[in-house]
Amino acid sequence: MKRAIRFGFLMLCLALTASFSLKIDKVVNLVCEYHENPIGIDVEKPRLGWQLISDDENVMQTAYEIRVADSEKELQNDKALIWSTGKVESDRSVNVAYEGPALKSMQRVYWQVRVWDNTNKVSSWSTPAFWEMGLLENTLWKASYIAMNDITTEKESHPSQYFRKEFQAKKPIQSARVYVTSLGVYELLLNGKKVGNDLFTPGYTSYDHRLQYQTYDVTDMLQENNAIGAIVGDGWYRGNIGWKGDYAYYGKQLALLAQLKIDYQDGSSETIVSDDGWKASYGPILESDMYNGEKYDARLEMDGWSSFGFDESKWTQVQILDHPTDILVAPQGLPVRAIEEIKPKKIITTPKGEIVLDLGQNIVGWARMRVQGEKGDKVTLKFAEVLDKDGNFYTTNLRAAEATDTYTLKGEGEEIFEPHFTSHGFRFIQVIDYPGTLDLDAITGIVVHSDMDPTGSFTTSDPMINQLQNNIRWSQKDNFLDIPTDCPQRDERAGWTGDAQVFSMTAAYNFDVASFYTKWLKDLAADQHENGLVPNVIPDILSESKGAAAQGGATGWADAAVIIPWTVYQTYGDERILKEQYDSMKGWVDYMAEESGEDYLWNNNKHWHWGDWLAYDANNPAYNGSVTEKDLIATAYAYYSTTLMGKIAGILEKTEDAVSYDALAENIKKAFIKEYITPNGRLVSHTQTAYALALSFGLIPEELIEKSAAFFTQDVERFGHLTTGFLGTPLLCSTLSDIGRDDLAFMLLNRKEFPSWLYPVTQGATTIWERWDTQKPDGTIIEGMNSFNHYAYGAIGEWLYNYVGGLSIDPENPGYKHILFHPHPGGGLTSASAEFQSLYGKIKSSWEINGSDFSYEVVIPANTTATVTLPEAKTNTVLVNGRKPKSDLQKKLKQTADGVQLELGSGTYRFTYPSGKLKS
Fold it and tell me: In 3D, which of 712, 723, 699, 698 has the Cα closest to residue 624?
């Protein structure tokens, strides 16, 4: 009997203990400045973040403790810590700034974190992570820029340059780091092996103001006798750039800057630097140009040139080039890498007799070729996005870009060729003079882009919409190659601000773009004019100082200076980007205010505005359904960016600025209403774009919203299709949904005829087109400015995620700290699912209509909360996880005009109820 009582008491204790046990399984995914274990950073107070893993519901962090030390071992010794926060009462688990003692150049520190949950239980310490500082003081650069006597004076590509140096390390090595950059693009080699897997380093920046250097851990690559080598090519610095035929835009001479620091186990150190003791030579890369391609002669290869003992007697002495080191910065963006390989689907012989391989997907990168033949055989590879209507290889839309690689064989068995410093936008590869029989295994497509982590996925029951989403993702990958380009194939590939602005939120759904945009925005600020004007492209290759008329100040384009930092803040809760870009944002908004003058209307025609670029049939004089006055658009954007500045100033506690910008915005709105809206709510530009801008930006007086919305919907119904361009399209469906017309938004989405999002899908598109009619139904391709790979119209992706999928950011709680779930079924869809990997973990919003039932699953990560709206639901019919909700949950169900709404903590929830009025 006593044993039974003791056993029962023990079970009761265990049950009570379990009920108050730690809800958090572990703390994982430690990041520093959005990167895992970064080295060579120059952020003096880097921000740290982590995720909580738990299978329980309603899990919140209530406190954290971070500790930092010089080694993993010292993390266990409280007296050896560099910094410890102690227990901090906070639910913050992202962007927590390091506030310890100032760190030194090249210092590596280790850190770990533990957290307390909402049962006041503490987790175990996380697995340690680290970060390592770069060269924080300019005086630490002991290396010199070295160059060949090769100064470009004519507009043609020159051979890539090879540099080398031998050295010895006679003592046991503790660690070794190399810091390297170039004027041009480089590949670094050590003892015959490539260092790292980054491409097109040091990256594309505003070279006159900012030049990135990379840091590599080369400890395991060193031996007693060593050789360091580098290949430097023209790249963006000295190669062809832009569509005006510019060459050597930033400089006429290539150079290398390298510094290798070796720490020995005995405590001593040694630094190997680029100096006049290095040797240089040309090699097998005869030309390598971003637009034109690479010419490679394998007969000129120099076996072992980057290994110790190579005969460099025929190499020349380098020159020392005077170039500043105070512009050197550590990268904050993402490296470009070879991400994926695609095998061709088929070999085609065109009507003209061309031998063409079809990858089945429009990509950016190059072709890896396997070939065997005689010495001196030359194989030519040409690249194109499409075949023409007759089935022939089509390159007219590439304009001046040659997009051609040539490889001359050395004749020594099977040879493998991949270019070094070029990329192409292509689906089709024309192969000319291939020796022997060409088969599918001879060519592999190499996909190249910035190494962004995929974060979002969106799928529906409609295969064509799924293909549209796939096309959006591919256009983002193809155009996010170190900068956000407009197109990746023709003689342009520029960082157009307008394209980047309208697509920024869709981009942030699909991939982790926090550091990608951080880097690019710093170049925007660097290239911004003193008066606040923002150039049209970043980096600015249209600068007045470079001999061209200054181009910039176009609304919708230059507003990227304000809107993209706001997007990063909303998506990642990144307040620092608002601080760092504040002067840039303020400069642009103040510039607009100055240009608008006392009447607050930007209509002085001083600047070229692109307006609603490439709107449907806008160039047809007989058609006026899509031409929106540029003055209206300019003033609307001036209002929108000014309202954002008011919010941003408030967030940063700049009270005077916040009051000033709020007042300015109110004056712009009054001027807009007086100038562009009739007393009956009609806009003077009676277009879909005008109404979408005015309604979504909040420019319509409250008493006229219903009438303006009616004019808007009447126009959509009258045409039965969209008429918008670059600025109207991103807002079109979301504005219709905001005014309660999901039916029209879905009508536009589902339309398969030109103009529509699905029309290119019916034509076999695998990326987003630049124009609605880039290719006609009969296969005719528009001549001139025409790209099959532009992401701007892919901005519909934002609406797909947050309206159709129902997964949205709460603007008042950025970074998905609080999530809004509200799906909008319709358009004949029977299901849709949106997923997003936030800084807190996986978020999911997935719905399905199955017969008479509507099922909805949401996943809310630990340390977040959510508001869930169940469309058209009734409180008494909702089942949660297959059963009636418990009383505490039942009390949370609130009937609203949209259905049932409830507040939830973390966990996985499955709701089912009668579909009722919901339409598939």
Answer: 723
